[in-house]
Amino acid sequence: MRDSALNFSVLHKICTLIVLLCFIHISVTIFYYVKSFDLRSSFVQNQQSRSLKQSQLKFNTVFREARDDAPEKIVVFTSNAGKDPKELGKCPDPSPLLLGPLRIEFSTPVSLDVVRADNPNLRDGGRYWPSDCLALRKVAIIIPFRNRDEHLKFWLYYLHPILQRQQLDYGVYIINQHGDEVFNRAKLLNVGYMEALKDYDYDCFVFSDVDLIPMDDRNIYSCFSQPRHLSVSMDKFRFRLPYNQYFGGVSSMSKQQFLRINGFPNNYWGWGGEDDDIYNRLSSKGMSISRPSGAVGKCRMIRHDRDKQNEPNPQRFDRIAHTRETMNRDGINSLTYEVIRVEKDKLYTKITVDVGKPSA
Question: Mind telling me the catalytic residues?
Answer without folding.
Answer: 209, 211, 271, 274-275, 301, 304, 306
